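Action item from last week, closing it out:
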Amino acid sequence: MSAAAAASSTADVVDAVERTLERAAAVVPAAATRARLALAALLDGVARSTWPEIAGRFSRLTTSGAPVELAWTGRDASLRWTAEVAPPETPTAQRLTLAGTWAGVDTQSLAQAQHGRPLRYGAWLAGRHAEDGRDGAKVYAEVPDGARLPDPAAHPVFRSWGLTWRMAGVADDGTTEWYARAERAEEVDLLAFERSTLGSDGLLRARVRELLRSEALPRPCGLSVAFAPGPGGSPSPGESPSPGESPSPGGRTVPVAITWFAPAGAVFADDDDAVRRLSATTDDAAARALLAALLGAERATTTTAAARRRIVPIGVGVGFDGSSWAQAGLLPS
């Protein structure tokens, strides 16, 4: 690839992010401004790469190799994104520390899990921007093969058959989320996963059925469980955690949400189909408007299946309080 073509590759990503955020600004102007500033700083580092021939297409984060992905959820109209924290020449083993510094979260235990093991991507950085001025940050850390899972891995869900734990998310609000790959999940596995984490019965399965309009699950798919600090503090010496809780250093963590994930291409005919069905899962008008804005009207004019696919992963989440939502990851365009 020529130097000009390489520069164009990176510039194309930056331009696509800018166009997408311009559309989003019609719905959430303040959030779009703060997202633009954050992503400009990250993508500037990528654009200054000493490996310009791959800087715009090196990432394992997205199917296109682009170093940034936007995200949507029917819970609210916050702008969400995930991005590479450094250019491609930065060693993979250093990315977790860099992401933790950006997000302001402690990643030491996850760094110990990664130490000395082969890594594919190391870590990504995520941000969330609400229209009311609230921001959040999160680090996604790779869990390599053979790594010992740090706490709260004492929870029984981490010993579930058929789940391979691949990633951990650490947020600046104290929550942690663990992500697993399920090679051959069936509806009974969703039931078991929900019972062992939230103690509820069948809500996740019901919401997944509604989105899929089918009882058959795409294979493989993914599952995650989010933990938050519990109100009880540290257990007393000899005290066992209550059902649904797991011990962690310095306090107690409680499962607060679970999510099921799958590739959008295994569920929806195209992005128009995805927009219709995802929008139907939320009563939040601003969230529906944001999804349409993020995708843009140009999706209706594309001619190839690949060009129509801007929605990549999709998911269904359930909270401990009985809430539920759909979510999706989107390539900027």
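Closing note: DSSP finds nine helices and eleven strands in the chain.
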